Amino acid sequence: YVGTDLSLEYNKDVYSSELKLAYGQQDNYDHKSGQNKSTGDHVAIEQFNAIWLNSYSVNEELSIGGGLDYRTEKLAKGYIAANSWGPAKDYDPEKSPRTNFGVSAVAQYVYDVWTLEASVRNDDNNQFGNNTTWQTAAGWSFYEGYELTLSHGTAFRAPSFVDLYYPGYEMPNLKPEESENTELSLSGAVSIVDWTVTGYYNQIENMLIWKGSGMQNVGEAEIKGVELEVKFDTDIVSHEFYLDYKDPVDKSGAKDTQLAYRSKRGAKWNAYATFDQWTLGSQYLYQGERFNGSTRLPSYSLWNFTASYAVNQNWDINAKLSNAFDKNYEMYTSYATPGRQYFVSADYRF
Fold it and tell me: Which residues constitute the signal peptide according to the record (predicted)?
């Protein structure tokens, strides 16, 4: 992946605004282990994003916000190698370019021990039409340091360009995913520890999920679970722990089954230390066992490390080491996953 992004921010009194621009090209190669990548399939996706966000504080209790965003993506180039799908061939570089224009609005009202929030978003997609989603939430600070929050809303997810047109795995008739989500959370603080427990229940129609021959829709799915989040500091090190237990169910068949490639258990630990001009970080990720039909994929653990150096108040240089110990694992049956990876980036703020 090669890309660049630009972010501009403006803050004055009760008004703030941010403009984000991003362009990138993602190259995907699909070839057998030990062979040169030129022997397999190749597809490159070009993407451009523009996002404009605004926030305004009407008074001490009420704040409002809104935004516009535009996204376009197209197949920049592609090649399908000779295989069981037929002879080698070039791919149409202008196949179904896609655009999405979004408009969003949000309002938050805070009074005494109550916090109320509502948001709405409309997406106009040249491939999947016009869709509106919404979210509402209410928070109650019933005791000092403790809050109970209830939220309910809808969501819409269009299939990605890769989902639809990846060479050899084309699924151009995929439907967008639609869902209705409810969450209840309790948060508090004990000594140096901040914690949140969240229970959630999601009902999903046409869920997008990988099934070996390409991305497919699951007509009806249900995911319910509980997540624990814990944060605390030890000297200069900040810690974040996440534990998640869920029951992901495919309800589209004659009987309920566990959703393909969805684990019931997960955990994550993030640690960051900042000193002088340096910020060093580590991340541990655990995913429980998953299933694809009767095929069991074992659990796995990964370590990632990051480093950031602030050259001055405007410049940051960043480095990341992913899958640091070159762990072999499977996310999908018979498909290799990236080994150890290195990333370097630079951020400049005007």
Answer: none
